[in-house]
Amino acid sequence: MARYSIFSLARNALTGHRDWPELWRSPEPRPAYEVVIVGGGGHGLATAYYLAKEHGVTDVAVVEKGWLAGGNIARNTTIIRSNYLWDESAAIYEHGLKLWEGLSRELNFNVMLRQRGVMNLAHTEHDVRESIRRVNANRLNGVDAEWLDAEGVKAFCPPISISPEVRYPVLGATLQRRGGVARHDAVAWGYARGADARGVDIVQHCEVTGIRQVRGRVTGVETSRGFIGAKKVALVAAGHSSVLAEMAGLRLPVESHPLQAMVSEPLKPVLDCVIMSNAVHVYISQSDKGELVLGAGIDSFNSYGQRGGLHVLEDQLAALMQLFPAFSRARLLRSWGGIVDVCPDASPIVSKTPVEGLYINCGWGTGGFKATPSSGWTFAHTIARDEPHPLNAPFALDRFTSGALIDEHGAAAVAH
Ligand code: FAD
Ligand code: PYC
After folding, report:
1. How many CA atoms lie within 13 A of 358 on its CB side?
2. Cα 12 to ligand 1 centre (Å)
């Protein structure tokens, strides 16, 4: 809400002018916080943690419209890997994987990382060529990667069918042994506890409804619980990034889509690795509780409703039946959806914005869980120093005008 001095109000009354330059306004109230982070998901909480831990910035509030970790962070299928194609992606995701490897110790909170290996299946000659190229690219970037033929896939994952009698037989797979799964809500809680212990305020049920600026510089956020002044505002609201950016007059090149997943009833341990298939399209692992965890491609329409179409789930189950006929007897326990925001090049934005003091982190789409540590780590650097870290510099907003896109549709490994 604009504030005017008595002098400017009197002048407005005399002239009927309602839009005097900002110079005539009385000063904004003192900012309550150095940094307000919008979004209490994994990335927002990790950002708060690293701001406090790595940069000594503790005068921070995380404002969350719902409850802590009620968004994608606790709705995802928890797959962690760093086997992306391009150098820029390999660098930021591998940094994330290294942080994951020390995270339980770092946070003194068991995030239950299990590096049981992630296989990305190849079902066509084109898949095989593209996959081997990716293995080579990964190795050049110091990312562990192997190529397995069909028998190698069967040896690594005995329940899988490699029958040649199906429409898309398994011809081989890439394998990243350091890939795996973790417990998603533990990650959010671990970062939240670590940030809280360093003085960060975490405010739940507080929806940001506006972003206030004076002379091109952010001064705080309007919320459902009143105005919160801040020198810097960081938007990390996956799925709703464009809504928030619009409050600051920015139009983002991102689209919001539902992404669905489901679990079976708990089974005895039967599957000790993660399998992803882009061609028949399903990804699957078994949780420590015994549930088969399955994920889908995005629903093709835009939506903010945290649910999607039944036909998408039917397609996942059809793909599952081809790869694991034995699982046809497992019963579905529950399914759910989240809203992911997707960039045209299937890569994220971790960036300053044209508004001074306003930063944005979004567009991780279907693959941001694995990036939670590196997203928070690089974003904290960007906010604290007002300049990107070399790891996230390529993921700036201006790549959509410069044309320096980082197209990871293949390695995103989830249908877009
Ligand atoms: P979120 O947890 O969604 O946090 C954003 C927060 O912002 C939300 O809590 C929301 O309430 C809040 N917010 C929104 N608007 C406002 C507002 N106006 N004011 C205040 N707060 C606001 N990635 C992987 O790497 N591996 C996977 O296996 C994987 N599987 C997935 C499966 C599914 C079904 C889904 C939905 C996603 C999956 N992802 C996966 C993607 C991953 O979950 C996301 O990229 C990542 O969690 C997004 O970052 P976040 O945790 O901060 O998001
Ligand atoms: O990016 O690895 C991934 C992923 C798996 C499931 C959804 N996204």
Report:
1. 26
2. 45
